[in-house]
Fold this sequence. Notes:
Layout (H helix, E strand, L loop, with lengths): L1 E8 L1 H4 L10 E9 L6 H14 L1 H7 L11
Antiparallel strand pairs: 1-2
Amino acid sequence: xxxxxxxxxxxxxxxxxxxxxxxxxxxxxxxxxxxxxxxxxxxxxxxxxxxxxxxxxxxxxxxxxxxxxxxx
Length: 72
């Protein structure tokens, strides 16, 4: 199995050049390349199960509260 990730990021936001542009990714793309003795339908089911159970997929696809503090 091979997984690749790519994303769309506008550097104007990241570098603080435009306050109207988000400083994070606008889109993240994940591609799976799976070599297995299984039908395309079964492989698609596996990908769907991975999305359903993956904590990484969950954190990037749903808002997650973040608590930031300064410890002295």
